[in-house]
Specification:
By secondary structure, the chain is mainly alpha-helical. It has helices spanning 13-23, 38-57, 71-82, 112-128, 140-147; strands spanning 85-91, 98-104. The protein has two domains: 1-30, no CATH class; 32-147, NinB fold, CATH 1.10.3790.10. The protein is built from five helices and two strands, in the order αααββαα. Strands 1-2 form a two-stranded antiparallel ribbon. It is flat, with a radius of gyration of 19 Å.
Length: 152
């Protein structure tokens, strides 16, 4: 059975160490609690603009749907590709009728770790397609890449 341990400070890491010793490897660690940061969001939006500009420079000015190749539509399609949708229930307040629909997941609902994982997927996808994205050395994204041992 999975064990969840809340760590409120560095002094409490011994509980995590003890749990890993007891359960063994492999183990999954999830960084939660702090929502995605504004610097993460800002860099993601910059990447959306850079990716759209790359495709426009290659002569691709629209998506297959006919939507313009721009930051807003790129963001929507990256979220569709790497975050997916969630089912939402709405209620008609006049009739009480409940309807279900799918909606793209919102990055504002992600914690810092989830946003980092999402951005890493986008970054890897861009690299696979020859798209250079900005990676400011002082950015939170690059700091987390180094902290997680993912930086090249």
């Amino acid at each position: 059975m999975a064990e969840k341990i809340r760590v409120n400070g560095l002094g409490e890491l011994s509980a995590v160490t003890a749990a890993i010793r007891a359960k063994g490897f492999p183990c999954n660690v999830s960084i939660t609690g702090a929502g995605r940061s504004l610097p993460q969001n800002s860099l993601f939006h910059k990447w959306c603009a850079e990716i759209a500009a790359f495709f426009v420079s290659m002569g691709k000015t629209t998506f297959a749907t006919g939507a313009a190749m721009n930051e807003v539509n790129m963001k929507r399609n990256l979220k569709q590709t790497f975050l997916g949708e969630e089912e939402i229930e709405d209620i008609d307040l006049r009739t009480g009728e409940i309807t279900k629909r799918s909606e793209l997941r919102h990055t504002s609902d992600l914690d810092k770790g989830e946003m980092h994982a999402f951005m890493t997927c986008v970054d890897k996808w861009a690299m696979e397609h020859g798209i250079y994205l900005s990676h400011p050395e002082d950015s939170e994204y690059m700091r987390m890449q180094r902290d997680f041992g993912e930086a090249a």
